[in-house]
Structures are given as C-alpha cells and as structure tokens.
Amino acid sequence: MRWIQAECPEPGHAMRLTAPHFRKAALCAAILMLPWSHQVALGQSVGKAKASAQAAGGKAAATKAPARNAAATWTFSVEAMPAWISTPPSVDLGALAQAPGYMRELSDHQIKLDAEGESHFVRQRLRINDVTGLETASQVNVTFSPDVARLAFHDISIIRGGQRINMLDRNKVRWLQREAALEEQMIDGEVTASLILEDLRVGDVVEYAYTLKGANPVFGGRYSALMPTSHPRPTGLFQYRLVAPDSRHFVVAPNENFQVIQSSKGGLQELIVQRRQVESKVREPFSPRISDLELAIQVTEFKDWHDVAGWAQGLFKQAYLPSEAVKAQVERLRAPDDTPEKLTEKILDFVQQDIRYFGTEVGVNTHQPATPEQVIRQRFGDCKDKVSLLVAMLQAAGIEAVPVLVSSQLRGDVERLIPSSAAFNHVVARVKLGEQVHWFDATAARQRGPLAERQAQRFNRGLVLSPSTTELSVMPDGQNQRMVEAKDTVTVTAMDQPATLQSTTRHFEDRAGSLRGLRATLPRAALARYFESEYRERYGIDVKLLDEPVISEVADHNAVDVTLRFSLAEPLDRAGSSFSIKPQLFRVADALRLPSKLPRQAPYLIGSTGRYIHEFSIELPDTIWTEPAGRRYEDQGDSFRLKFQVRQEGKRSVVRSELAVQADRVEPAKIDDFRRHWGNGLARHFSSVNWAVLTPVQAEQNDVALRGILTEQVRQNRIYRYADLARIRNLSAYIDSGRLNSRLTAAALSERADAYMDEGEYTKAIADFRASLQRRPDQGYLRLGLGRSLFLAGDIDASLKTLTEAMADAPDATEARRLRAMALYLTGQPAKAKAELLSLLEDSPQESASGVVHNWIRLCMIQLKEPLESMPQLAITAKPKSWAHAMSQFALGKMSAEDFEKASKDSALKGIEPGDRALQRQLFLGLQAIAESKSSSGRDMLEAVSKGRLSLESSIAKHALKN
Fold first, then answer.
1. Maximum pairwise Cα distance, the chain
2. Contact, 46 vs 217, CB < 8 A?
3. Is the per-residue pLDDT at 37 higher than 80?
4. 6-301 belongs to CATH 3.20.20.150
5. Residue 572: what are its φ and ψ, rounded to 5°?
6. Is the domain 575-692 a CATH 1.10.10.60 member?
7. What's the sign of the alpha-carbon dihedral 824, 825, 827, 828?
8. pLDDT tens per residue across span 505-528
9. Looking at domain 308-474, which CATH architecture does it have?
10. Statement: residue 456 has pLDDT above 80
11. For the chain, what are the domain ranges?
C-alpha cells in the first residue's frame, strides 16, 4: 500500500508524484514523506468514469499534440498557464538571497478540485548563487504515475539579466523508468519526465511550471494533503493554495508558523497557506520522522478517524465475502483436534511463509488489495493483499479478524496528525481469540513459534477497520519484548596460554527473523566470517572461530539460538600487579545510542524498546576469590532501567547486565540527563575483572624480597631509591612467575628495561629490550627503546643501526630521528646528520622549542667547515627569558659564548636548573672545540660532562672522548 504524492526532494528540484520506498523488510510502501519532500496525496477527488478514463490516458485538453517517445503510453502536453491559478505575492528575500549553492525564491503549489477532477499546479523558481548550485538546479525531473495522472508543462525558463530564455524543448525531454523499489519486491509503474538545462550560469534564475491532472479513484473522491514546507535550501515563499466548491468541507491542521487566508466567492472556496523567508533545515541525525512534519501543511476532507476507517473498510470488503477457494485452503490446513489457537497459527504460517511478498503498486492497487482467491492462486502479494487473505481465512475458520492501518515510520506519532488517509503506509491484522487480542503482521515471513511471540511490535497506534472505530487503538509498544539474551564464557586453563570463549545468544522475535534470513541467504563461510568479525571487533584480531556457527530454533518460542566457540590467543592484560580482562557486554552496551553534546531541536532516537541481557563469566585455573564477593548497580531513567551485577567466588567471576528500554527517544531538554545516566551505565560495561598476577606463594616470596630491599636502602640511608628498586623487583617477579603470555612478558620486559635505564643499568636494559623484541619483533617502540639504551651505553654504532630499523617501522618517530641524527654526527657523518635534523624541524616544528636541534645543526656546519653565516633561517619557538631561548640564540649566532655562559648561570631564566645548563653548554662547546681542532679545551669540557648527571649528555661526551 502506498499513497500517491508530490515531492521536491534534495538533491535536485524534481517534483515527484510518487511514493518513496524505504529499505525495510516487508514494507508495503513508504509513508508520503521523505525529509524535505513536498507531498500531496493526489487523486482523491474523482472516482468517476470520466476521470478514470483520463487517468488511463484519455483525451487531454492540450493546445498541441502531446509529445511521445518509444513508450507510446507516456505522454506530456505543453499548455498555457491555467486561468484558475493566482500569482503569488513578491517576497523580500533578505539575507536568504545570498545562500550558498542555490535558493528557492518560490515554491508554489495550487490545487483545484471540481467536477472535472483534480489538478495540481506546481511552480518553482530557483536562484543560482554559485557554481555548487549549477548541477542540482540544472535538472528538471517530474516523476508521476501515468495510470492516475497526466502531465502538462507550462514553462521551463532561464531568467538572465531580466531576459526570459525559453528552455521548454519537447524533443529534449527524456522518459525514465527506474522502479526504485524493485529490490524491495515492489513495482509502482512510475515514470520520470526529465530535462537537463543547457548553458546554465551563476546568477541565473530557473523557473518552471507544470500541472499534474488526474486522481486515483481508490480514495472515493476525497482529498487529503500532507506537505512539508521545510527544505535543505532556504525558500523565499512557500505557498499552498486550494480551490474547491463551497459544498466540500475541509479540515486544516492549525500551525502558528503559517499565514492562513480563507475566502469564498461565486460558489468556490479558496484556502491559501503561506510561509515566508523559510530558513534552510537539514534533518538532524537520529530524529523521528514526525520531526519532518512539524511544519507540514495538513488538509483533509475526512472528519475524524471513524470517517477514515469507514473509507478503508471498503477496500477490504472482499475479505468478508464467502469464498470456496478460501474455505478449501482453510480445510487443507485444519486438523480434527486443532484448537482455535492452533488453527490460527497454521493460517498465519501459510500467509506469512507460503505467500511470497511482491507488490504491484499501480493505479488503484496502491490501496486496493487483490481478492483472496487471486492471492491464493498467484501465491504472492504485498501487505494489503496478505492481510486481506489472512482476515478472509480466519473469518472462514470462525475466528474474528480485522485489518488495521498502521505507519511503519511514524508509529505512535501518527496520532499527532489530523485524521486522514495520508497517515498510514502499512496494514496488519487484529485477531481475537477468546479474551486474547493479537496483532499480526502478515508480511513477517520469518516468524515462527507461538502466537503470543509473533505480535506486530512498535507500531504503537493503529486504525482498526471496524464500524465501531472512533479513534486510534493502542498497540504493543515493545517495552516488554525480549530482544536478546547472551551468555559468554571465557575459560582460561593456564594464564600464559590461549583461552576459549563459548558464546550462546538467544535472539527473539524480529531479531530471530533476521538471523533466519542470514542462515537462509549467506554461505556457511560468509556466515562464519560475519560472526567472527562481530567478536573480533570486541576482543581483537586474535579471535578465531573454532567451530562452524550453529543457528538453531528454540522449541515453543519465536527465537533462535546462536552458538559459537572461539579461541582467544591472548585474552588477558596486566594492570600493575593484576591480570585483567574486559567483559564485552555489547548486546546491552550497543542497545542505546549516546547522543553528542551538540544542542538539537528534534528528539533523539536512542534505540528500540525491549529487554536486553548480556552475561559474561570467566573461569580461571586457580582459586582467586576465597570468599564470595560482588557489587550491584542500578539506574532508573525516564527511558531505560539498567541493572548491573558482579559476582565472584572461587575460580569464577560473573558480570551480568540487564537493560529495559522503555522509550525509543529522548526529548531535547532531557538529553543531558540521559547522557549522564547512560554514560554512567556504559562506564560499568567497560570496567575490568581483575585478579593478582602472582600466586599466593609467589606473592609471599616477592614480599620477602621487597622487605630485604627496603631494609638495605634504610641501612644505606638511600630510602629514596626504594620505589625504583621495588618496581624492578616486582616486574622481575611477574616475568619469572611463568604466568604471563608472550605479549605480556614482552611488555613487562620493556617496562623493566625502562626502569633499568632510569637506574643507569644500560647493559641490563639492552638485554631486556632484546628479549622483548624476540617475543614481539613487530613492535617498533621496542626497537626504539633498544636503540636508546645502546646509545646511552655508548655503543653508538649499534644504536645507529637499531634506530634506522626503528624508523623503517615508524618513519615519523621524532625521538628516533633526533637520536639517529646525533649518532650520525658521532660516527663521522655530519652531512647526513644535518639533513636529518633539518628534515626533522620541517616535519616537527615543535622540535625547535628546546634549542637542542639548533645546536646540533650548528655542530654539523662547523664539522663540515660551512660558515655559520650561511645558517638556515630557523625559527625560534622557545619563549623569551628561558634557557631554551638562550640555546637557540647561541646556535643561530645571535648570542656570544660569553653571554651564553652568563645565561647558563642566570637563575631568573626558566628551564632546567643552572647546574644542568652548564653541562649542556659544556657539551656543545666541547664538541665545537674538537670540531675546530681545539682538542685540549674541548676534552676538558667533555670530561666534566661525562661525569655529570645528565645521562644522554654524559654518554655523548664519553663517546667523543674515546674517539
């Protein structure tokens, strides 16, 4: 089912007499709205033989013969402007006139209803402001259904410099038929008359006008319109005008944003609705569809919901007529001992599964279902066809059933529209079995199980097609629907070995149907990759599926179990003295979206209502929790209720999260509150399960060793060293425990190597980095650490080789580049060192902040015997009155050696303390002296540096003294 409508979508300024189709399983048709479309439910005023003949291609009142192409039934005519239209008022565009791309000066829609039928006149005027608007504004596309409407062009012009250029060339109009919804098993017979404007320029104004004549008899001669006025481009004037006989009565939805003018003259009534200087509006992400209609014009001839239901009942009258074919099909399904519930289940299975989904949405078939006999014979149909058959079969079985109109997009928000035929795009069935009321979607082909678990969920409101209907009925909102229950168990047989992850997830109702679809359509290998990628996203690339996924039906439920078994190569992390693993409770964590902090006007769709459960447990080889332990967390917000629990005992830790989503959206005023509540809840889901790395025996042995270190440091009056030595002792205990896997061992060795370097024990640091690299040769940071430790140990040649290898893995690593440049200089390669340093400053300007790189460039130039006057113009980024600034000034020849020495002693300068400044100054002056062949003074200065406390400078000085 779908409503015929007019729209002006973005991109382009095409006018469509169409129904856009959204990608949704078993969607009979989309509601008459896309964001930014201007839509009118056309074709509801005729219902007469004459109009029907016109809709089928009867004689047109054209001034010239209609244009035709190879598709002879697709025609348009060229006619003068209709006499009945009115000229819209001029509007001051103000700042809107300078909108980027293009703007709509005018969007004019005028509708005439009379004895001849229905005419919808459209006039659009677009101003091209820059080149970005040329492509879109150059396309004039009119999409409509030739079964119910005829197209007449009046004008297509370019206005340039006050001159109007006629662009309406019938020979350049092309016909297109794309059947955009064919992938959704639906054809609508719509065609597009398309004209591409040539020689369009910035500053031009495009104006075009046409009329669509005709109506769909299915609406029984009654008119409804639902027309959004907002658009991604600003609009100077949006006008809607309706002209009809005084005898017809219309309901107009009030809206304070519109100027409404109503009048009557000569037996005709006129309704004008205008909106001026309309700012552009881009639909906010995750906003409900009703947001698109807040500034929509609503007009209808239907008085109330009872009136709409009465019209729609006539569409389904065939479902209530006696039919031998229907009775015979029911009897083929019936067993002697069937209860009404069992027979209903069989009939529902037949309609959902044996009648495939396919819709022919052409002419009256947009709303009029095929007869039940035809559907049985052809074994296909869309939502209205399948519901008509379902109702007919249940009625034949003596079971009360009626169709129910619903909106798959507006859902409960449909009650915010005025009653009209334009409110719905789908139909389901209400079935009464004793005191139980069920709501069934006949297009839900992948449902299984008991009736209670096959309810049409989340439509929230529906129009029951019954004579007693006076208002919309409340339908299930999905709050109590079970969505998913997942249980993941990680089993660790040894701390340093791979673990297994056993996952069983039960998907209910709609989610179960989706899994059935995957099972039916994906090859086994693709299905395995699908599930493996889902867990790799959470647990890392080392996740491997061990067995073929098992998707099994759950007896007596509309549910599917998915059983998976994975290998986790390195599941554990280490945080200090503890192992840790992060439970991935994504079935709950992913159920709700967390909105950004950006302010918004529309409500935010957070997710689907229902209940979500995810439980994670880890089984360890050792008893960790000698006493039961745990914690609980609960949060109750306006839109959700969260229960989070941790239980730990013996070898097992269990984390369980239960989420009940009670609303699908959050109002703008409550977004901050929702962010706070759900953000706190998410933080729980990302917390870790932790336990000690060392066994109790190992921990006691380590404590003894730590007490010995403390006693010795106290005896030597060096208590300040205890923390560093204790760090090395602890890391050694973890490494020697035999409980770390390869990745964690490599990380601990690297951490201990850093600690050894802090203590000046470079030989031990080098050994640890090399041992770490053996386990993780792909980790460039380990190679950098080894290169740094070799440099500090004085093995500059080995350091240079290692740093070069490190840069192959990470060419932008600034520390590796800086150390490598120093190593190049110290190994007699000043030209390469200079090039490296200059490149480093170009790529990483922040390296100039300390002044160190500047001084190394100076040394390279001296070594190369280049005059310092040719020093490149290097930026000084260090702050004035700082040691770094003085370093840069000296390097660039802007400070004398005497002033450099004074600066090293100036306590007012910010930066490192004067003693360390002296060592830096002596290093560069000493290296400079040796480069200038003043080895005696240079060696004296370097001797002082070599005995200083700056490890890098000391290492450089020692190397220089040896060479």
1. 119
2. yes
3. no
4. no
5. -95, 150
6. no
7. positive
8. 999 988 999 999 999 999 999 999
9. Roll (3.10)
10. yes
11. 6-301, 308-474, 575-692, 849-963
